[in-house]
Amino acid sequence: MTVRDTVDAARPAPAGQQPDTGAEPAIRLRGLRKSFGTAQAVAGIDLDIADGEFFAMLGPSGSGKTTILRMIAGFERPSAGTVTLDGRDVTGLAPFERDVNTVFQDYALFPHMTVLDNVAYGLRVKRVGRRQRREMAHRALETVRLAEYGARRPAQLSGGQRQRVALARALVNRPKVLLLDEPMGALDLKLRTAMQTELKHLQREVGITFVFVTHDQQEALTMSDRVAVVNEGRIEQVGTPAEVYDAPRTAFVADFVGTSNLIRGEAAEQILGRSGTYGVRPEKIRLVGSPDSTAAPGETTTTGTVRDVAFTGPATRYEVELDAGGVLSVVRQNDGGAAQDRYGNTDRVRLAWAAEHNLRLADDASTA
Ligand SMILES: Nc1ncnc2c1ncn2[C@@H]1O[C@H](COP(=O)(O)OP(=O)(O)OP(=O)(O)O)[C@@H](O)[C@H]1O
């Protein structure tokens, strides 16, 4: 169960690396590259995903996540590198020769078939007998809590139910690995949140390795055991959700997982007395009052002017233009009732945070 992130094997183990127990990882990628013509979609990936992990690939549109997934599934042939599943090199094998199933964003259900027949379809192709495949399909529908819906057609289901049918259709094959490409992409926010919880429970129940692709940081953080942050065909960082959020290694990771809150250049010199790029999470910053007030000893502090106030219910977000240059977001929980200080546009404020929350960032993975 090792994880090697792409950046540099010679460096100390990056955050998120699991101890090497000698067990074969479910998925091992080595030197994986893919070019389309002259464009490089995946620029060299080394990654191990452990058996039974819920693993997220998080990155912006066009960063190469889907291409990585398609190479694991066998739909795309790598330009270089290898894909090993459970200790077996499958790089040259067709999708159906791999112990992997994929759930696509559009679910790809057959509209003319019943839900039960959709789920049983893969078993029919594998020539499983009719009675057994109906039983297995029914059990898979039970797993996704749709046992009563077997006789319906996909058009008679909600988006979330269709998504679960697609899952049941993949689960019925009992693959070692399930790949999910933006599985919640077509769902509205409420359903999406409900499905996230359900999917996580389901994964624990069936014990299959899940790898899912998303551009939604919230989804990646809530659902996964570990996250790989993908940027321009490379993995910038691999770690647990807490590790990539609390200890981002690069400015890209700090920005993409969370809010961009960077102190750099002249502002870093003035506020921190050091050069370089630093990040500080918005919820770690306190607004302590007017610029004349003082911060606690050992805190980093600076002054600025409120430029925007956004009330979001449980919290309020302030955008503060710093006197030293740049803008910082500050999030305050609205838990203080009427006694809580409130600030408005153009108010002059002092900001303070514990020095340990200054995150030293590299500008990109090559200097991390
Ligand atoms: N079949 C193809 N032919 C040419 N270029 C492709 C092909 N598939 C993907 N690409 C390019 O490779 C890059 C990575 O694409 P990919 O679909 O892997 O990104 P992604 O991170 O999954 O994006 P999204 O979140 O938008 O799905 C993009 O620049 C894309 O245009």
List strands and helices in order, with pairings.
Layout: E1 27-36, E2 39-49, E3 54-58, H1 65-73, E4 80-85, E5 88-89, E6 100-103, H2 115-125, H3 130-143, H4 159-171, E7 177-181, H5 189-206, E8 209-214, H6 217-223, E9 226-231, E10 234-239, H7 241-246, H8 251-256, E11 262-264, H9 266-272, E12 277-279, E13 286-289, E14 299-311, E15 315-322, E16 327-333, E17 348-354, E18 359-361
Parallel strand pairs: 3-8, 3-9, 6-7, 7-8
Antiparallel strand pairs: 1-2, 1-4, 4-5, 9-10, 11-12, 12-18, 13-17, 14-15, 14-17, 15-16
Helix pairs in contact: 2-3, 2-4, 3-4
This protein binds adenosine-5'-triphosphate.
Number of helices, where a helix is a run of at least 4 consecutive DSSP H or I residues? 9
Shape: elongated
What is the count of structural domains? 2
Average pLDDT works out at 86
Order of strands in the sheet with the most strands?
A: 6-7-8-3-9-10
Q: What's the gyration radius in Å?
A: 24 Å
What fraction of residues sit in β-strands?
A: 25-35%
- The end-to-end span amounts to 24 Å
Q: Which parts are unreliable, with pLDDT below 50 for 5 consecutive residues or more?
A: 1-16
SSE arrangement, N to C: EEEHEEEHHHEHEHEEHHEHEEEEEEE
| Secondary-structure content class | alpha+beta
CATH fold title of the largest domain? Rossmann fold
How many strand elements? Answer: 18
CATH homologous superfamily placement of the largest domain? P-loop containing nucleotide triphosphate hydrolases
Associated small molecules: adenosine-5'-triphosphate
CATH architecture annotation name of the largest domain: 3-Layer(aba) Sandwich
Major β-sheet, in short? 6 strands, mixed
What is the CATH domain class of the largest domain? Alpha Beta
GO molecular function, one term: ATP binding
Keywords: ATP-binding, Nucleotide-binding, Transport
Protein name: ABC transporter ATP-binding protein
Region (Disordered): 1-24
